[in-house]
Amino acid sequence: MEGNSKQIEDEEEEEEYVLLDLEAVYEQVNIPPNAPYVLSGLDTLNPVLVIGDNLKLIGTYEETIGTCLVFSEKDGGPVVHEETGPSDQNLFKGACIVDPNQTSAKQVKPVASLQKILKFRLPSEGDIHNPS
Question: Do residues 132 and 60 lie in contact, with contact meaning Cβ atoms separated by under 8 Å?
């Protein structure tokens, strides 16, 4: 019994990330930002996504080809240049200057790699008569 618990402790829990792709329904339905949703059946061939009270979408898994990476992006603030140099004419030595004509920098970092994409579509007549 003790050997089994040690074996379970040694196994690492593997996380799997899935991208939810709503492109096929994006122009057909209005999905408000921050709408409540329920995602069920992730371990089935056709998971179901219910958004709000009445929008039901059917999903189908698609394996990715190659490496699919997900990144997060946040503002890094304005680009700052520090004036340096040995010149006697450099009146702003050690000062930082912000260039108003330059857009703020973005910080991008990888979050996860994906093996699957879950593409959603509106239910068809066959889905209504034969629920999964």
Answer: no
Q: What is the pLDDT of residue 50?
A: 95
Prediction pTM value = 0.60
Q: What is the pLDDT of residue 107?
A: 83
Query: In the numeric block, which tokens belong to residue 77?
Result: 């603030």
Beta carbons of 41 and 47 less than 8 angstroms apart: yes
* N-to-C CA span, the chain: 39
Residue type, 23: E
Q: Which two tokens stand for residue 98?
A: 């912000």
**pLDDT tens track for 85-116:** 555 555 555 555 556 666 667 788 888 888 88
Which residue type is seen at 108? Answer: V
